Amino acid sequence: MSRTILVTGGGTGIGRAVAHHFADAGDEVIVTGRRPGPLDETAAGRPAVRPLACDHTDPAALTALLAELPERIDVLVNNAGGNTDLDADDATDLAAYARAFRANLDANLLSAALTTRALDDRLAAGGAVVHLGSIAADHGNGAYGAAKAGLASWNIGLSRTLGPRDITANVVSPGYIADTDFFRDQLTDERRDHLVAAAAVGRAGSPADIAGTVAFLASPAARHITGQVLNVNGGTRGTR
Ligand SMILES: NC(=O)c1ccc[n+]([C@@H]2O[C@H](COP(=O)([O-])OP(=O)(O)OC[C@H]3O[C@@H](n4cnc5c(N)ncnc54)[C@H](OP(=O)(O)O)[C@@H]3O)[C@@H](O)[C@H]2O)c1
């Protein structure tokens, strides 16, 4: 039976791969993000993919999105996010620090919490919520890592709330994934080589690696997995 899947941040990188994976499997997929252009590219040639612009940190935008969404969502993939420090300005005063810290919390933690809350009464029994965390939660990486660690903690409570409704809630925590817009143009060759060498498998992850794991967590095979963080990092060791 075809399911309805919402993939936030589905215009690029991991979100696009997740959207294509579900659509190719026969599901109806809605992709969201702030920029319509990448969303249209994700949907191009795939009638099962519907693009809708939305900023998932903005309660008003989310409320408006609800009017465009179906009454039933089987799988919610809270993928929107990223390290907002990569887009920050050069200001160094305390107000700038607060602004930058809040931007990471908003993009990676509040966005998932707000989206899940907005959709709460549309999440269907037998369904799944999957968030994109990060290895940064374990390695420590400023406000970005703290936001992803907070996401994992918040998900534990969510799993208890949704469990009695037969809905699972998990975090997929990637290591270094190539072929996304995550690093903008700021990943040096040296840093990339270091990230690849840190993985036991000696290669970068791909968006398809993550899409396969998200699909597994949303599948009948994973109904007793909830409240977990699943590391998908090629064997890169965490620090805790
Ligand atoms: N690539 C990696 O190595 C890596 C590693 C660990 C974790 N992750 C996580 O994986 C997820 C996907 O990242 P990616 O690697 O695929 O990078 P990406 O290509 O930059 O994708 C992030 C997507 O999120 C969307 N987005 C960001 N803020 C948003 C907001 N407020 N509202 C709606 N959409 C928003 C962006 O679209 P718009 O700008 O158009 O809104 C973009 O399409 C992120 O949560 C990231 O933290 C990535």
From TrEMBL:
InterPro entries: KR_dom (IPR057326), NAD(P)-bd_dom_sf (IPR036291), SDR_fam (IPR002347)
Classification via Gene3D superfamilies: NAD(P)-binding Rossmann-like Domain
Keyword Signal in record: no
Record keywords, A-Z: Oxidoreductase
Presence of the UniProt keyword tRNA-binding in the record: no
Domain Ketoreductase: start-end pairs: 3-180
GO molecular function, one term: oxidoreductase activity
Entry's EC annotation: 1.-.-.-
Similarity comment text for this entry: Belongs to the short-chain dehydrogenases/reductases (SDR) family.
Protein name (database record): SDR family oxidoreductase
Origin species: Streptomyces mooreae
Phylogenetic lineage: Bacteria, Bacillati, Actinomycetota, Actinomycetes, Kitasatosporales
